[in-house]
Each structure stands twice: as C-alpha cells, then as structure tokens.
Design brief:
Layout lengths: L2 E8 L10 E7 L2 E10 L2 E6 L24 E2 L6 E2 L6 E3 L9 E2 L1 E4 L2 E7 L4
Antiparallel strand pairs: 1-10, 2-3, 3-4, 4-8, 5-6, 6-7, 9-10
C-alpha cells in the first residue's frame, strides 16, 4: 500500500490503557473524528464511530477505555470493543467492529498512514 505519513502525535502522549489521542482524518463526506490508543505496547487507531449507531465512543474527551482498562467502550450504548482489533465483543454491533486505521510509531512520534489517491 503506497501512502503518505502524517504526524498525529508524540508517543509519550499515549500510556498503556490510558487516555487516547484524538485527531481528524479526511473522508469522502469530509473530516471524520478518529483516535489512537496504546494497548499491549502498540499503538492502534480507529475512526471514532460506534459500529451500532454512528456516535463518538469517548465518554469524556479522549477517554475510550472501560473502568478496568481492558476494552474500548462506547459511552452511549455500552458496546465493548477489542483494543487490538476493533472487533465488537459485546453490545448491539451485529458483528461489526470499529474501522481500523493504519498507524506507525517511529522515533517517538505516531504517524497516520494515508493512502495515496493513485494507489
């Protein structure tokens, strides 16, 4: 996959199971909310949109994990998602999960990998 990398934040901004990093991505219908979290020592990023109803997940800005810091939680519906895959584990998701975004962590920074229009 050819693409460009856009800086979205510093590695130090994400602690394991801690607050996420919010950012925007360009979509067909305009800018869309997204977020990145650290889980299992890696950074994962998703569109900030519940698979059940398209509302943002965080219950407070940047707060995506449940109280036990084990799952991503939709504050509106209570759906639980696997932080490493975005798969819906519980809730009214009907088998749909979160939309995964490609990110890389390098030299203390986190980059969103954006697809080139010609790829």
């Amino acid at each position: 996959m050819a693409g460009t990398q856009r800086l979205i934040g510093r590695s130090a901004q994400l602690a394991e199971g801690g607050p996420g990093l919010r950012f925007e991505v360009k979509g067909v219908a305009g800018d869309q909310a997204a977020f990145a979290v650290r889980w299992g020592g890696r950074v994962y990023a998703y569109l900030n949109r519940c698979a059940h109803v398209p509302v943002e997940l965080d219950w407070e800005e940047g707060r995506f994990f449940d109280a036990d810091k084990l799952y991503l939680l939709c504050a509106t519906h209570g759906a639980l998602y696997d932080p490493a895959t975005g798969a819906c584990l519980s809730g009214r998701c009907q088998g749909r999960g979160l939309a995964l975004l490609a990110v890389v962590e390098r030299d203390g920074h986190i980059y969103l990998v954006e697809e080139s229009p010609d790829s």
